[in-house]
Amino acid sequence: MISLNGYKIILASGSPRRRDFLESLNIPFEVQTFSVDETFPTVLQGKEIAEYIVQQKSNPFNKLVKARQIIITADTIVWCDNRYLGKPQDKLTAREMLSFLSGKSHEVITSVGFLTSQKFEKLTETTRVYFKDLSDREIDYYIETASPLDKAGAYGIQDWIGAIGITKIEGSYTNVVGLPLAQVKEKITLLVQEE
Fold first, then answer.
1. Which residues are catalytic?
2. C-alpha–C-alpha distance, residues 171 and 25, integer Å
3. 48 phi and psi angles, rounded to 5 deg
4. What does the DSSP 8-state code read for residue 148?
5. CA 82, CA 106: separation in Å to the nearest integer?
6. Contact 38, 86 (CB under 8 A)
7. Residue 46 to residue 95: CA distance in whole angstroms
8. What's the sign of the alpha-carbon dihedral 191, 22, 173, 123?
9. CATH entry 3.90.950.10 includes domain 8-193
10. pTM for this one?
C-alpha cells in the first residue's frame, strides 16, 4: 500500500491491463485519455520510439495538470531484428508479425511517463522474450480465438499463445503485459514524498 500524501493519480491509458495493474497496488486513481498521434520519426530506434510516444501522450495534459497530481502515461512496443512492431492493423498483419517473431527472441520495451505540475520524468524497462517455432496452425488458432489487434507485436504474454509459445523471458513479466509494476510503484512512492 502506498500513502499518496494527498496526491491524485490519473492514468492516461485506456488499457484494461494497465488499469488492473494499478488497481493491484491498492491506490485510488482516475482514468483520463486523449487521442494521440502515435507516429514517430523514422530515425528513432528501439526504446527511443517508446520514449517519444510516451512524451506525446503526456503533452495534452501539460496545461491541465494541477498541483499534487501525477499523470501516468505508458507505451509498449516490440522490437525485433531492428524492426518496430506496434499494434497490428488487421488479422493479416497480425499473422505476419507472429510469423516474424516465431523462433526468435525479441525485446518488449515499455516507457512510462510521470507528469506533475513541476516536471515530466520517464522510466523505460526492457524485457527479452523468447518464442519457440510457432506452427501456422497455432498462429491461426490464436488470431481467430484471441484479441491480437490491441497488443504490440500481435500477442499477449498472458494469452494462450504466451502459455504455449514463450519458452523464456529475461526481465519483468508485467512489463511485457504493459506496465513494469515494481518500477512504477517505486517511482510513485518517490514522487509523493517530494515536497
1. 75
2. 20
3. -60, -35
4. G
5. 10
6. yes
7. 22
8. negative
9. yes
10. 0.94
